[in-house]
Amino acid sequence: MAAVTRGCRPWGSLLGLLGLVSAAAAAWDLASLRCSLGAFCECDFRPDLQGLECDLAQHLAGQHLAKALVVKALKAFVWNPAPTKPLVLSLHGWTGTGKSYVSSLLAHYLFQGGLHSPRVHHFSPVIHFPQPSHIKRYKKDLKSWVQGNLTACGRSLFLFDEMDRMPPGLMEVLQPFLGSSWVVYGTNYRKAIFIFISNTGGEQINEVALEAWRSRRDREEILLQELEPVITRAVLDNPLHGFSRSGIMEEHLLDAVVPFLPLQRHHVRHCVLNEMAQLGLEPRDEVVQAVLDSTTFFPEDEQLFSSNGCKTVASRIAFFL
Ligand SMILES: *[C@@H]1O[C@H](CO)[C@@H](O)[C@H](O)[C@H]1NC(C)=O
């Protein structure tokens, strides 16, 4: 999905109204005001949870559980000046359902500079750990990066993409950082945020959503309690998932397992309209319809869920304009 819009700035309009200063100066004032109020502006950390909540409500289609879980976990964590352990979230779901989008929103609303902040560290197996035979070096590097960056600043975000493609054994070096006892040289390692992303459990989530639809239950009635055990089982059963034999699941180091549901036609429509608004385009029915018509749905009979969620919406809009 495209870059984040900034339609969710509750204070911006107020300051603008007062005509205080130029926009840039206002942004600076805002940050320093929030810092002195909250006293949690270490390094680049500038949490704006109201903004995050608003953006999720406007732009994340069809994910009532992910929305609620992420906001709740962050509120508890961010407002706590001395958390007892780092925040560890594991995002699961079918392709194109919003996992990467949510992580980019988190980076954007927690750190000045968003994904480009020097406090936000993004690891992808294909880019950073492509050769399973180099596992020894990867383990050494990853451990020293995490440790080095946490020594520099406790408020850091570590984002691990495609967890089901990590070289086996790599993630075990993270295990000691995710618990509650890792305090070195007076640096508080408990302020870090770790996010893990994978498609593992996606099929199981889809089955639960399909079953709910078949028994005419509202999608919003699907509970975390129904999904969490099936996702956990899918992760434990997948030897290719980075958590395999890492001790992370066994030691219960995850604060939340965050499920992303498969997207239906009206959610894809929502994505198309969002995307057009981002591009500054008026909504046009024929474009929306063309994108929907070019989307494939499953299962074969019901034609209910989009095969790749909202993943290719942006490029297809460009094609149909
Ligand atoms: C912080 O992490 C990055 C990778 O994201 C790494 O290149 C860098 O060396 C690390 N810094 C320290 C001080 O370890």
What topology, given as strand order, has the largest sheet? 2-3-6-1-7
Instruction: State the separation between the terminal residues, measured CA to CA.
Output: 17 Å
The global form is globular
Number of helices: 13
Structural Rg = 20 Å
| Distinct small-molecule ligands in the complex | 2-acetamido-2-deoxy-beta-D-glucopyranose
CATH class category of the largest domain: Alpha Beta
Structural class: alpha/beta
Q: What is the CATH topology assignment of the largest domain?
A: Rossmann fold
Task: Outline the structure in words.
- It is built from 13 helices and 9 strands.
- A 5-stranded parallel beta sheet has the order 2-3-6-1-7. Strands 4-5 form a two-stranded antiparallel ribbon.
- It folds into 2 domains: 14-260, Rossmann fold (3-Layer(aba) Sandwich), CATH 3.40.50.300; 265-320, no CATH class.
- It has helices at 10-18, 23-38, 49-59, 64-78, 99-110, 125-128, 135-152, 175-178, 202-214, 224-236, 265-278, 285-293, 313-320; strands at 87-93, 120-123, 157-160, 183-184, 187-188, 193-198, 256-260, 297-298, 305-306.
- It is globular, with a radius of gyration of 20 Å.
- It is an alpha/beta fold and 321 residues long.
- 45% of the residues lie in helices and 11% in strands.
- The chain binds 2-acetamido-2-deoxy-beta-D-glucopyranose (NAG).
- 2-acetamido-2-deoxy-beta-D-glucopyranose is lined by residues 121, 144-145, 148-149, 152.
